[in-house]
Amino acid sequence: MSIKIDSLQVNIGEKKLLNNIHLTIPPDKLTLLIGPNGAGKSTLLKACTGDIAPTSGYIRLNQQPLHQYSAEQLSTLRAVMTQDYGIAFSFTVREVVSMGCFVYEQQIARSERECIVDDVMRFMHINTLADRQFTTLSGGEQQRTQLARVLAQLWHPYTHASPRYLFLDEPTSSLDIFHQYQVLALAKQLTQRNIGVLAVVHDLSLAASFADHLVLLEKGNIVTQGKPADVLQPHFLSAVYGISAEFFQHSEKFKPSVIIKETMRA
Fold this sequence. Notes:
The strands form three sheets. Strands 6-7-8-3-9-10 form a six-stranded mixed sheet, with helices on both faces. The protein has a four-stranded antiparallel sheet with strand order 2-1-4-5, with helices on one face. α4 (110-123) crosses α5 (139-155). It is α/β, with parallel strands linked by helices and 266 residues long. It has nine helices and twelve strands. It is globular and about 55 Å long. The longest helix has 17 residues, at 139-155. The chain has a single domain (3-263), classed as P-loop containing nucleotide triphosphate hydrolases (Rossmann fold, 3-Layer(aba) Sandwich).
């Protein structure tokens, strides 16, 4: 069981956004997409969620073609957090997180839904914000609240026969360093719940620290994929980003990182 992508191509008009993509997203791994702006990261994520139809090739979710699932079926198997998550109305944090329970609202009692919301807020360390108005939160607090809402969609039941998937488009973009590391650490914990995570990130050191599987994209093509130490090699970083940099891990006590020596493009 996994998400299996074969020979995927996505065109909009005459522009080719993705070309001949082959990728497997397992339920027990944190897969991160990296690459410069315009590389195709968000397009690939949207194709995996069913928001963009492939021009050719196919995507299978748990051995079934993605296009054969109804919207209702997909809502029980995958959850998505995009970059555009604004809420204009005065909902509390608890109410926002509760929105993630809508998919199984008729299946379980209200008391159980409330327990799920409490559990997810604790997991995301936002339980102290439960009664705050969403619109009064900082950008980082809003982002963590929206991530909690998305997680609530996958939280029930606690044991699930079929693997499920979480898709995150730049989940750390509004966060400080502490919460960037916290969010990706929590995302990695989710893989222990039979949930595969696919996320777009820009920070190469975050990618080095947390990815189980790293995918480097450029101009709609996969340049290379594999373990961070294999992907974040100087020749790949130079060719794709135009930087002189290298993967570095001081010891097992410290998270690995990418050290940038200089930019090479004018």
